[in-house]
């Protein structure tokens, strides 16, 4: 069967699934939004050099996802590449539904020429996020896009509606194709220094944001890069921070913001300057060589183009960044996705049930560069872990295959899975003995960033915790030779990826899976396996469940 026939057949299958969903909807259900995506290769020139990019419906970056709290999203993805493909949803919690998380530990890849339809709900969430391709080094070729979850109309938002809403996807970029970068890592080496920075898929001054003088606009900024933190600033303009990964923040004003790998922020910017064009600047942080790129803030009544040179920003100053991170606070009186104020959840008064200390390292194993957590460098199993768990397939993984704290022992390869009890309340301490910034993400959850500081964490460090109004988020940085502590409710049953957002480190083992388990085996705690779930590895040939 030729590719076009494959595509038409799979689109028919997707249409039938959509019809089934519509027929089963009742008047009381939350709205459904349908997307059909065709994933292809295409020529892109983001840094002036021809590259093989990954496009979604011919676009790089991919289409923006617009949604409202509790919407059901039906996203049919057809893989027209010549290799397997998966999409994951950075920050979307997939409540009770790790089946839709789109990482290899939970999902079989979509084979070339085949289709998979994600059925997910943005349950009890608001905010700014992004999606990305999760296999191999596909992220280095594109395939990412913005993901916005707006508040329901009945929920008050703690600022006036802006005159416009801009998605700003920035990050480092390599001129080498993703397959070449993967070969470098597979060969036992680390990636070279990036070749440049992109803003919405384009190089310097390749993107313009048009505003009307006197009006206020929302910028949703995400670091979608592979290896470096960035700093974001707008020439001559202040930024009012209003949201951090789904949490309404205390509305502090900043001249610039550090945004670490995988993180997302929303700021309000008022066009209150003279009618000219201004630089929007992104530059790398904590790098010996500073990369800079720009886009343009264009006043619609502009009397002239940008002048001068882009303003400089912070470079290697860790203390400055640490103080800014500590200034991020939760708006206690604002409503989140529900009408109750964010401050009504007293996270600091809940007794923790467990302390987990996670220490990153960069060992050489079998003569090759690897990365590890508590001396364990993750290797993927032949069968996705969630499927092995569901079907009780032995020999795929073992619970407790990663220790709860650093061992100081030699590093080794392992398919590492940590057990966790549903409704527990964990203190997680990320410890970074290395001389570079780490960025950690936990799928399926948000956590409260209660403390961060230099040096070695100890129980006495708890005396400095913010137990009243710290920010909650899903991705957090750990500064060089420092620690970051979070409190996290274990309130989402499933198999969840805990990973470095530095994609080379993630690929070479700085990740593991957290199995949050409920013995109830109830739909109230976790949805059943989807009827359309792809089955592979040792689960191939088994049945999901009747429609």
Describe the structure.
One of its GO terms (molecular function) is oxidoreductase activity. This is L-ascorbate oxidase. InterPro entries: Cu-oxidase-like_N (IPR011707), Cu-oxidase_2nd (IPR001117), Cu-oxidase_C (IPR011706), Cu-oxidase_fam (IPR045087), Cupredoxin (IPR008972), CuRO_1_AAO-like (IPR034273). By secondary structure, this protein is mainly beta. 9% of the residues lie in helices and 37% in strands. The chain has five helices and 36 strands. A hairpin with a 2-residue loop joins strand 22 and strand 23.
Quick structural summary:
Pfam families: Cu-oxidase, Cu-oxidase_2, Cu-oxidase_3. With 547 residues, the protein is mainly beta.
**Which outline best applies?**
globular
Distance between the termini: 27 Å
How many helices? The count is: 5
Mean pLDDT: 94
Please count the beta strands (DSSP E, at least 2 residues each): 36
Backbone structural class = mainly beta
Rounded to an integer, what's the Rg over CA atoms? 23 Å
Assess the beta-strand content as a share of residues. 35-45%
Spans of at least 5 consecutive residues whose pLDDT stays below 50 are: 18-27
Report on the biggest sheet: 7 strands, mixed
- Helical content (DSSP H or I, runs of 4+): under 10%
Family: Belongs to the multicopper oxidase family.
GO molecular function: copper ion binding; oxidoreductase activity
Protein name: L-ascorbate oxidase
Keywords: Glycoprotein, Signal
């Amino acid at each position: 069967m030729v590719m076009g026939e494959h595509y038409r057949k799979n689109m028919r299958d997707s249409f039938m699934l959509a019809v089934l969903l519509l027929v089963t909807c009742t008047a009381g259900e939350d709205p459904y939004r349908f997307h059909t995506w065709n994933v292809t290769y295409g020529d892109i020139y983001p840094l002036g050099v021809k590259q093989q990019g990954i496009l979604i419906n011919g676009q790089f970056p991919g289409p923006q996802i617009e949604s409202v709290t509790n919407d059901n999203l039906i996203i049919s993805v057809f893989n027209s590449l010549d290799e397997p493909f998966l999409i994951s949803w950075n920050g979307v919690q997939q409540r009770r539904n790790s089946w839709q998380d789109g990482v290899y530990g939970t999902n079989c890849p979509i084979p070339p020429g085949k289709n998979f339809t994600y059925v997910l709900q943005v349950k009890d969430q608001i905010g700014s996020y992004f999606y990305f391709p999760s296999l191999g080094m596909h992220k280095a070729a594109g395939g990412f896009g913005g993901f916005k979850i707006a508040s329901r109309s009945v929920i008050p938002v703690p600022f006036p509606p802006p005159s416009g809403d801009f998605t700003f996807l920035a990050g480092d970029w390599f001129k080498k194709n993703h397959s070449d970068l993967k070969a470098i890592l597979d060969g036992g080496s680390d990636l070279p220094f990036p070749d440049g920075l992109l803003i919405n898929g384009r190089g310097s001054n390749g993107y313009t944001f048009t505003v009307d003088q006197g009006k206020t606009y929302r910028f949703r900024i995400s670091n979608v890069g592979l290896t470096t933190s960035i700093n974001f600033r707008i020439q001559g303009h202040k930024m009012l921070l209003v949201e951090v990964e789904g949490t309404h923040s205390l509305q502090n004003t900043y001249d610039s913001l550090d945004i670490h790998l995988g993180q997302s922020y929303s700021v309000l910017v008022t066009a209150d300057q003279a009618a000219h064009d201004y630089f929007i600047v992104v530059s790398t942080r904590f790098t010996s060589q500073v990369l800079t790129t720009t886009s343009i803030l264009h006043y619609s009544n502009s009397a002239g183009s940008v002048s001068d040179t882009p303003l400089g920003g912070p470079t290697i100053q860790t203390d400055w960044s640490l103080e800014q991170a500590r200034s991020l606070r939760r708006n206690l009186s604002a409503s989140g996705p529900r009408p109750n104020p964010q401050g009504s959840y007293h996270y600091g008064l809940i007794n923790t049930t467990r302390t987990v200390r996670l220490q990153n390292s960069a060992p050489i194993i079998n003569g090759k560069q690897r990365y590890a957590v508590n001396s364990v460098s993750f290797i993927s199993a032949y069968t996705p872990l969630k499927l092995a768990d569901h079907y009780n397939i032995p020999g795929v993984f073992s619970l407790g295959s990663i220790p709860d704290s650093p061992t100081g022992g030699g590093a080794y390869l392992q398919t590492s899975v940590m057990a966790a009890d549903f409704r527990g309340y964990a203190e997680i301490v990320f410890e970074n003995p290395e001389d570079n910034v780490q960025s950690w993400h936990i799928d399926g959850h948000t956590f409260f960033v209660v403390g961060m500081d230099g040096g070695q964490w100890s129980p006495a460090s708890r005396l400095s915790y913010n137990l009243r109004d710290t920010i909650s988020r899903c991705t957090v940085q750990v500064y060089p030779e420092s620690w970051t502590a979070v409190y996290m409710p274990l309130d989402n049953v499933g198999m969840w990826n805990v990973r470095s957002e530095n994609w080379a480190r993630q690929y070479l083992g700085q990740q593991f899976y957290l199995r949050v388990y409920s013995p109830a085996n109830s739909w109230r705690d976790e949805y059943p396996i989807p009827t359309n779930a792809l089955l592979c590895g040792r689960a191939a040939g088994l049945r999901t469940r009747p429609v």
